[in-house]
Amino acid sequence: MVRAPCCEKAGLKRGPWTQEEDDILVDYINKNGGPGNWRSLPKLAGLLRCGKSCRLRWTNYLRPDIKRGPFTPEEEQLIIQLHAILGNRWAAMAGRLPGRTDNEIKNLWNTHLRKRLISMGLDPQNHEPSCLKGSAKRLPTSSSARHMAQWESARPEAEAQLLMDSSASLLLPSPNRTTHPDYILRVWHSEVGESFSNRKPAVCFSPASQASVSGTTSKMVPKTEPELDKELSCARRSDDCITSYHGLTHPLSPSEMEDYNRFLISMGRKI
DNA sequence: AACTAGATCAACCGCGCATTA
DNA sequence: ATAATGCGCGGTTGATCTAGT
Predict the structure, then answer these.
(1) Is there a contact between A24 and A47 (Cβ–Cβ < 8 Å)?
(2) Residue with CA nearest to B11's C1' atom
(3) Looking at strand B, which nucleotides approach a protein CB closer than 7 A?
(4) Are residues A193 and A264 in the same domain?
(5) Does pTM top 0.70 for this prediction?
(6) Distance from residue A2 (CA) to nucleotide B19 (C1'), in Å?
(7) Which GO terms describe its cellular component (predicted)?
(8) A82 and A104 together in one domain
């Protein structure tokens, strides 16, 4: 199957947008209560542009809720924290910074923040001190121990994130709950993360306990080793932002996948 | 004043996922 | 079930700006 081009290239304008083109696009979207179908928009609006170009111009520049101007130190700090959790998931970060676009955040990171981390002696990819790079012998050898150590380093950022967004995104529509990074992060934080940070099964929450993220009191029930192992296997593929951060990449077996789904369902009931 | 190198950022490209026919 | 299509995402490019020589 050969993918059709997003638009006929011939005769379409490229490069910087003029004020007149901006006006036409804004006017069309305002009059129609939204862009509708991006592919057909240029024709309907009378623009010699590809639909993709129109969408980009609107989402990155013309949208009325866009906040122009320099980033505040607070915003920069937040981006660094989010990057530690999410990696290069600019759109996910943009969702946490009202009025900022993924493109803006990406540009800020590549031009300023990345260099700032490097100058501070940190690896901009994993936010760890650069001197640790490549020194595998300094990392724990077993995968679960390595996992715990990595969780510990991610924990402050994850907690900042959870504190910041409080209960708002807990109201995600149910179809998104098992795939949304924030939801997964919350799962990780509430159950698996607690298990790893407490390290000893005797002080871990059982699957029946209440998650602590939403402020509900938790009933502490000792957790067995097999339970912890199961959670670890469940967590392997919880989301690419988590797996890439934690370096867990091997595929789940069908039974592990089943356990994972059960785990997500149970967490969905709790939070 | 002229040139150059580096920084910035708007825009483009290609890919993958989700939805529709 | 599958091909076609639309959309959004991350990576990259290139035009423009700015500071240094």
Answers:
(1) yes
(2) A15
(3) 7-15, 18
(4) yes
(5) no
(6) 18
(7) nucleus
(8) yes
Does residue A58 form part of some domain? Answer: yes
As a rounded value in angstroms, the CA-to-C1' distance for A119 and C19 is 21
**Whether residues A147 and A256 fall in one domain:** yes
The per-residue pLDDT for range A94-113, each reduced to its tens digit, is 888 888 998 889 888 888 88
Range of the domain at A110: 73-126
Bridge partner residues of A122 (DSSP): A129
Q: What is the DSSP code (8-state) at residue A34?
A: S
Q: Is residue A68 part of a domain?
A: no
Query: Quick check: A37 CB within 7 A of strand B?
Result: no
Q: How many domains does chain A have?
A: 3
Domain-embedded: residue A34:
yes
What is the C-alpha separation between A242 and A218, in angstroms, rounded?
24
Q: How far is the CA of A45 from the C1' of C19 (A)?
A: 42
Do residue A48 and residue A110 come from a single domain? no
Question: In chain C, which nucleotides are within 7 Å of a protein Cβ?
Answer: 3-12, 15-16
Q: What separation in angstroms does the CA of A27 have from each of A17, A54, A156, A209? A: 15, 13, 45, 54
Residues A102 and A147 in one domain: no
CA of A226 to C1' of B19 (A): 41
The C1' atom of B18 and the CA atom of A206 lie apart, in whole Å, by 36
The pLDDT tens digits for A194-223 are 333 332 222 222 222 222 222 222 222 333
Q: Is residue A227 part of a domain?
A: yes
